[in-house]
Amino acid sequence: MHYLFAEHRHHASDADQRREYRHYLARQMGPMIHALMLMAALAYGVGVVASALIRSSPLPVLLRLALLLPLLLVAMATRHVRRPRTLSLLALLCVLLLEIGINLNSFGHVPEQPLVMPGLLLPVASSVIWLGRWDFAAAMAMCALGPLPVLLLGNTDDVQIFQYFVYMAIAISLSAVLRAFMARTLFAQFRLEQQLREQAYTDGLTGLLLRNRFLELARLALDDIHRQQKPACMLFLDADHFKQLNDDYGHAAGDAALIALATAMRGQMRPNDLIGRIGGEEFAILLPGLDLELAGQRAEQLRVAVRAILRPDGPLTVSIGVAECDQAGENIGSLLARADQAMRQAKRGGRDRIVSAPGC
């Protein structure tokens, strides 16, 4: 179940927030990572051919080009992957393959020729694709350590090795700066989209789910409940004599009563319960995992808590209808309608009471 209310979201753990953000990054950056991997494979192939044309190597061209196949396979695998960890591992595998290719193409270097190390481009070129700190750190470590075999075993002197480490330190520092700014921009976009979704899905006055969003999430939750063969109940609430409150004391008093009622509902419900504002003073609550008896007890606790709220003309009271989903094929519309009918019966019975709907 989702943390959809502002209060619930503040109570959500940092781990949940980070997980949601990583999935957002995977969705947004997946196509770019796929495109960059294809470009890396193409650049590697062009680099091998160009290297073969300008200097000789003890390793045959076909052997060095053999890495193109795994590079392309890894790139193609990222096309439809949107799981953050899988995407990061594929990107790291691509970097590893490129580092192997750099070593293969650097063997046989002649000391008099300048040593060109494409590996210095990797940190900067890949700086924007890493979804978390761990994969960024792993990638930078591979970029720094990857060329060491050819540096230590090849025909390179101490000056060239020193130059390499200086240039690599600069490249990694630049990569860290680029990634930090990219991460800051993407996080700001993530927060903005969250706020826009909240405005589209939640009631501006009470902070509860709007009717359509409530029904959408309740439908999904009910499908899960049916699959797990667990009980579930729906509460339908209506504030008693609410029109009279608006007429006698104004809409500001009515708004204050609705806000207090929403606060009471959130205080009495569990984090995985769904609460929605169905109409003006009508609300619905889906209680997963509770049978009719337990849901009735929860409804009574809520009724008592609401009665402690004072209106200008006395205590705030609600009429509550309770319906249990006791049939596997029942949909959310039928369950809500039965709870609504029970609530209307509570109204006719004198208000400030709870009525349970008969089984469907």
Helix content: 55-70%
Helix and strand pattern: HHHHHHHHHEHEHHEEHEEEHE
Structural class: alpha/beta
Order of strands across the widest beta sheet? 1-3-4-2-7-8
The main β sheet shows up as: 6 strands, mixed
Number of helices: 14
Number of strands: 8
Radius of gyration: 31 Å
Instruction: Count the domains.
Output: 2
Cα shape: elongated
Mean pLDDT: 87
Low-confidence stretches: 1-12, 112-116
- Portion in beta strands: 5-15%
Distance between the termini: 26 Å
Give a description of the structure:
- It comes from Rhodanobacter terrae.
- It is an enzyme of class 2 (transferase).
- Keywords: Membrane, Nucleotidyltransferase, Transferase, Transmembrane, Transmembrane helix.
- There is one protein chain.
- The protein is α/β, with parallel strands linked by helices and 360 residues long.
- It has 2 domains: 193 residues, no CATH class; 148 residues, Reverse transcriptase/Diguanylate cyclase domain (Alpha-Beta Plaits), CATH 3.30.70.
- Helix content is 64%, strand content 10%.
- It is built from 14 helices and 8 strands.
- It has a 6-stranded mixed sheet, with helices on both faces.
- Helix 11 crosses helix 12.
- The protein is elongated, with a radius of gyration of 31 Å.
- The relative contact order is 0.09.
Describe this protein with a few key phrases.
single chain, about 350 residues, alpha/beta, Alpha-Beta Plaits, 2 domains, EC 2.7.7.65, diguanylate cyclase activity, nucleotidyltransferase, transmembrane, diguanylate cyclase
